[in-house]
Each structure stands twice: as C-alpha cells, then as structure tokens.
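Notes on consecutive records. When two proteins share a document, each keeps its own sequence and its own token line. Never mix them. Below: protein one.
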Amino acid sequence: MFNSLKQKWSNRENRNVLIYMLSDLLAKGIPFLLIPFYTLYLTPEQFGSIAVFNIIVEIMIIFIVMGGNTYFRVEYFKSKQQSSLFGSVFINLAVTLPIALLLMFLFVLFDLDPTQHSAFWLYAAVLIALTQSIILLVLAFLQCKGQALYVGLLNLLSAAVSGIFTVYFLSLEYFDEARYIAYLFTSILIMCISLFVYKRINRNWPKLNIEQSKPALKFGLGVLPHALSWWARTGMDRMIIAKFVSVHQVGLYSIAAQLSLIVIVFSNAVNQAFTPKIMKMLSENQFSQTVLLCFKVIFGYMIICILLALSAPLIFDLLIDVKFEQAKNLLPLMCSVAFFQATVTLFSNFLYFFKRVKLLSSITFCSSALHVILAWFLVGNYGVNGVIGSSIATYLLSSILIIIFSLSSIKRGQNA
C-alpha cells in the first residue's frame, strides 16, 4: 500500500491534483472559518453590501481579462512561442481596461448601485479587477507549466492576507469597508508577488507583441457572453433581491451561497488540476476515457452536495450568529445550484477544446437570460426561494445541453 501511494505521488499529474485540491480547500477554508467572525461583527445588510461589491469587481474582471487566461490555457500546448503568447494576451489589458473604466463611469453616472457605495470604492473596484486579471494570467501560465505548488501558495497567501486585513479592520469597526480595504491591499500585494514568481520561472519578462493579440481578443469576445452569463446568475441574483426584497435578504442569501462554496471550491480545484489533462487527452484522441473521467468527477460532486445539505442544521448551530438563522433553509437549495454549476464548468472544457465557444456562449447566455427573466417574475411571490429555484432549473438546462453538445463534438472529432 505504501509503495502504491508513493508511486501515485511520484506521478506529476497525481501530485498536482492533490496540491490543487488541498491548497484550494485551505485557501477557501480561511474565509469559511472566518464566517462566524463576520456574522458576529456584521449585520445581514452590511454582509449584503459586501456581496454586491464583490459582484461589481467580478464583472469588471470579466471585461478586463476578456477570456485571456482561458485562451492562454487552450493555446499553450499548441504554440511554439509561449512567451509571445503570454505577452500577446497581457498586452490586451491596455485595450480592455479603458472599456472597464467607461462602464464604471456610466454605472456611477446613472446611479445603478442598489447599495449606494461611494464613487471612490466603485472606481477602486476597477483597480482591484485589473490586479486580479493580471494574477489570473500568471496563474494560467503557472498551471500550464505544471507549477501547482506556486499556484497553491499564491492562492493560500491571498486568502490568508485578505483574511488578516479584514479581521484587523473589522476590529477597528470599519464594518463593510473593512472588506473593501483588505481586498484592495491584498490584490496589489499578490499581483506583485505573482509577477515576481513569473519572472523567477520564466527567467525573462514576456515578449510584448500583438502577434496573437487579435486572435486572443476575438476568442475573448466569443466567450464574453458565456462569462457574462456567470455574472448574470450570481450578480443579477443579488441585484434583483436587493431591489425587490431587501439588502438584508441579500446578506442571508450570500451566507448560504458562501457555505455552498465548499462544492465550488472542490470543483474549481479539480477543474484547475484536470483542465491541462483533459486538453492533453483530447488532443491525443482519448475521447471516451475523458468523458468517463468527467462523469466520475460529477459523481463525486453529487456526494459532497448531499453531505453538505444534510449538515446544514449543525453548521448553523455551531458556526453562524443567530442574526443569520434564516439562511439555514437556503443552504440545501444552494447546494443544488453549486452542483449544476460545477457540472457546466467541467463539461465546458470540451467545447473550449473543439473551439465551439460561440455555441457555449449561446447556451450559457440564453439560459442565464432565461434565469434573470424567471427570477424577476418569481421574486415578487416567492422571494429569495423563487430566485434560487430559477437558478436550479436553468443551470440544469445548461448542463444537459452542454453535455449533449460535448458528446456530439467528440463524435464529430472521431469521424474527422
């Protein structure tokens, strides 16, 4: 048995999977462990404001990174000039940043923030998004290089520093602004460290040229509706609840969503670890083996969701302040959302590989639009439960369609 474990550890792919999973679990476990502290010092309204701010940062990241990290992972194993590939993706930030700034200007001008953050913090969200986009590009580079340890350490450091800053400023009674300050400081620090790691691994700075900038931007525009669909689900959920119910309910919803992140953490770790493997297996025409691998992973997701849903009463009794007690009934529903979201993420890799990004974007964008419409109508009669029910139904639809088209893409690849 010892020899078997040793042999598995000596395999680089197995070792990377374990490192990704452990580091991601630990990194996401830090904010999870701090939830009792957050619920003690923050009201549901303040927690809801933080959730909306995070959503604003996320949409800014979508427009700034413009799918560059995904494009880099897809093209890395096909390119003979990998430094130029990274430089081409990196230089696109100069094009996408002004777009993000313009969008934020319009957001502030028309007063679209339901939680009324100050203009300072809204523009700070763009700076945070820029630093996070640079971090994402470096992490994509490290993942393709098989440098799982560096990826894990950067994620851990980010979570630890952010947690320390947040707790410190909460203790000084900065309330929801404690999170914003911590997010800004941590993002700048981790960006600097990640660039240092890139220089250490690559030895030279990337060659900045526009050779693949246009294809990268074209790819990014192709997946933009897909990326926006993710935001439309998580972002518009909170916006709709804030507008038609209350920011208090956004806080309760966000606590349940935060706890269900256990599933997302596990799925993201698996996806980070297996994406290079999936791309490699598909490039070697190991189609049936890749599909079987993905279905095994999905079964693992299901087990985790069931266990977490059954543990909801115990988790709230032990960890969560009584102010957030009503969120307990939302957790099982959020576990269902997380399961189908993880399924969509995993099988999207097939459509990325076969460059059917427009199809993927169409599926996710249309299902997300359907979700927003359903949530808009259901929230009046069913409140938060109506929004979550809409999310479950439309994620299920997306996962079914993406699996069907993934299998049809494989069939076309076999017949080619």
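Protein two starts on the next line and is unrelated to protein one.
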Amino acid sequence: MKKSAVITGLVSVVALLVPLSLFAAEAEEPPPPLSEVWMVVPKTGMEAQFYEAVEADKVFREQGGDSRDWNAYTVAIGHNMNVVQFRACCFNWADQDTYEADSREKELGKNWSENVHQYVDHYHHYFEYADWENSNWSEGENDGPYYGVTTWTAKQGAGPASGEARKKMSQLASEGGWDSDWLWLSRVGGRPMTAVVSSYANYADMEPPEQNFFEFMTEKLGAEEAGKMFADFASGYSGSEYTVWKFHPGMSATPDED
C-alpha cells in the first residue's frame, strides 16, 4: 500500500512541513512540537536571482553558526508555484527567544537583508504545532523528497466534534494497522488551519491505494458510523487545499553541529 494512502482517503471522502523526515512520532519522548515557517514569494521575473541569492545565504548561515537547520521546499503540484517554504523544527516557545537572541548576536539576518530581500515580493510567517500523539511518523521512512500536504481552513464557531473525529481516526488507523505514515500539524498565526502530511519517494509513490481510507474505516466501524465520523471531521472546516512540496537541498541550510 502506498504512503499516499491517508491523503488519498481523506481527499476522496472529506472533499478535500518540520524538517519533515527527522523524527518519529513513536519515539519514547517525542521531539518538541513547534516549527518556524516562512513562506517567501520572489518578485516576478526575479526568481533566478532569488534562488541564487538564497543559495549564497545558505552558505552564510552555515558558516555564521546558525543553530537551526532550515529546510527549503518548492511547490511541485498546487497553486502559487513560485512560493518557497523555509522551515525549522523542532523546539519549544522558550527556545525561540534563545534562537532570536543568538541570531541577533551573530547577525545571521544581515546577508538576507542586504542581498536576498531585494528579490522578494512578500512574506508570510507562521509557527506550526505538530500533534505527535495522533501522528504516525516513522524515522527513516519519510525522507521525501516529496511531501503531500492537505490543509483545511477552520470554520468559525465550529465545535469540538471535528477535533474529536480527527483523534478517533488517528487512533483507529494506528490500532488497526493502516499501512501509512502521517503527520498532523496546526498553524499558529494567520487563518486557523489544520494539515496532514504524507511523504513520497517519487510520483509513482503517489498512486492511490486499492483500498482508500474511508473503506478501511468502514471495515472497522461499519458504513454508518464511519460516515458520521468523517462528517464530524468535515464539520469543523470551510474548505481544503492539497499541495505537493519538494525538498530543495540547494537552498537548505544545514549547519555543522560540531
């Protein structure tokens, strides 16, 4: 069964990024839950200059002692193909204060301000919270380079039914032997959103499974109860979007921890 199974099942029934390959949700002590995320849109016609400048900034950060790995992703499938995502994981809120102070002392943002910012149209800045408890993200099994992300926009005034359904689906998938890995994320900042991530080795890995997620749940619960669970999940959201991101090593800063 393909790793795209969770995404495929949810997309087909409900109408429908951490350094995403580093940690296992099954670890005895899960990593801290926060990731910092920057969505950066280059100016039209200046994409090549932007990419070149970011690759130089990567070297600047690596040599300047940046304490975080910054993984870069570009859009392979989806809207807004010129968006570049930079993300660093995994830490707690207090760690962010420490990181920002360290970055100021080392002037890690200086090169970006002087040599990259001129090619940027606009930014979006978020944090994302990983729900390790309800995820199944195995170390060494999710190295991409493609990551399918289904994002749901929260419905204003929605009750707790959607969140409870999400937890129930995850529990049943884990206990029932659903043959796929998934990672739940929620956004901090901007419009409230929930996302689920799957990893693909290539496009062939995105082939829909023979049995989708709804059929799997129907086997476990029966059609009526499974249908209600999916309806409860969908009740908390006003819409969804699916994007496949591809890891871009050339723009990813991975300082030597030694």
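For the record: The first helix runs from residue 5 to 14.
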